[in-house]
Write a structure and sequence with these properties.
- There is one protein chain.
- The protein is built from 13 helices and 18 strands.
- By secondary structure, it is an alpha/beta fold.
- It is globular and about 80 Å long.
- It binds adenosine-5'-diphosphate, aspartic acid and magnesium ion (MG).
Amino acid sequence: MALIVQKYGGTSVGSPERIKNVAQRVAHHHRQGHRVVVVLSAMSGETNRLLALAREISANPSPRELDVIAATGEQVTIGLVAIALHEMGFKARSYTGGQVRILTDSAHTKARILDIDEGNMRRDLDDGAIVIVAGFQGVDAEGNITTLGRGGSDTSAVALAAALSADECQIYTDVDGVYTTDPRIVPEARRLDTITVEEMLEMASLGSKVLQIRAVEFAGKYKVKLRVLSSFDAPDSNAPGTLITFEEDENMEQAIISGIAFSRDEAKISVMGVLDKPGVAHAILGPIAAANVDVDMIVQNIGASGQTDFSFTVHRNEYQRALAVLAAERTKGFSAREIIGDDKICKVSVVGIGMRSHVGLASKMFKALADEGINIKMISTSEIKISVVIDEKYLELAVRVLHQAFELDKDDVAV
Ligand code: ADP
Ligand code: ASP
Ligand code: MG
């Protein structure tokens, strides 16, 4: 008998029919003698709808109240799945994040989990009940409702699995595993049987939303056995999905490149003609950091005639704010000939642990893009990834040609 945490995403609970399907699958595992804790998202589209309602009333709503509003989406689905299980004759009890007591910090809309009280869940499991928990939400020390950031139900599930020392955390979604890239963009994308936690961390942080990055971090830190599966397969299908693994298996033929991630949420700012002298990078980025804007890539040109150009990227949501900060600082902190920006850019990244031991991958990537006439605006690399910033209009083409260039549609990858 195992203890399993199963998380179902928005599409998987998107209608009463699908709610009943979730209940069928949960029941299947319960009947097999397993203890099951279910973590649920809101119905697909619901969190967007709720947040848009708030924005119809205010352009700048209070984050505390946004959390109060957004958390209701998950409260609906937990009640519905509990009722569906009751209808089938099972004992089931639903809990909000606060009722479990998923304690978080007070960073509304992007709170971090600090502690989980497993008391209620253990008692119900001992009593033979199925436990159903609202994903995405928690409560801070003062009792305020908090949420964990978009896609946060994945993190709720992995954190609960860690707290309960579960045998496995299963993330049920609308695809049957982690693919070499988003199968909606490249139909030839291939499901991976396994992916290392390190690669999955890169993929998630570079834009693959199949798992929230913090969920992967939790899995790595607490060694949670994490698997991504389809909620549309039959409950008794033994589809393996994708297992997130902790160590490179030396015996396994490891692919050099595992996948391609992309993000549309990017914007680039260039500060042109600044003085090429110590302290200028700080004068530009210091106020940006003070305004709580995250900076991703940074590039400074080689100086000529005592001047240089300085470019960086930010999340597209923070683009206007970053421009406003620089406009205010321009005469005070630094002088510049011109500040220009572009929020029609995207980032495409190639990820793979095999990069550590193989050379020539960057040039292969750049050639594939050049052959399609795609101009690279910025480049950044780390040990296991290469990212490029390009025009947004080329995103899909770039992902497709890179997928092909690295032969990710084939089982035996040759590079
Ligand atoms: P859920 O609502 O179940 O949490 P998400 O929409 O958050 O589902 O995540 C699943 C989606 O992630 C898929 O439908 C797919 O379009 C997208 N996706 C992006 N990159 C990948 C990838 N490498 N492998 C699988 N799915 C991916
Ligand atoms: N419902 C939340 C969202 O849409 C959390 C989640 O689905 O994981 O972001
Ligand atoms: Mg998700």
